[in-house]
Request: fold
Amino acid sequence: MSDDETRRTRSARPAPLGDAVSAWLSRTGIGARVAQATIIVDWPRLVGEQIAAVTEAESITPDGLLRVRVATAAWANELSLMTPQIIARLNAGRQGRIRGIRWIATGPGTRPSP
Reply:
């Protein structure tokens, strides 16, 4: 068997599924959106119990704007002052970047719906 035939045979072998999915995510650009979406799931762990108790991460736009529901306007104001630190924590070691947070007060005495 020639060197060219050997190379073709090796490259024709199936790739492990994880490698194929990772390559596809990178090639299509969806990987960054998937990384962004994990922020919604990981929100309580990323921001801590106190903030998670009064907030709910709702959605992320493709350009990285995170929408978060907040129990009260007072909390929304407090969290807006903490936005740079929270964004830094959310983006640490992550492919999908958050560029901003829109804090949405749901009203006095109400808690964000799960």
Notes: The longest strand covers residues 55-60. Residues 44 and 50 are 9 Å apart (CA to CA). The chain has one domain: 3-105.
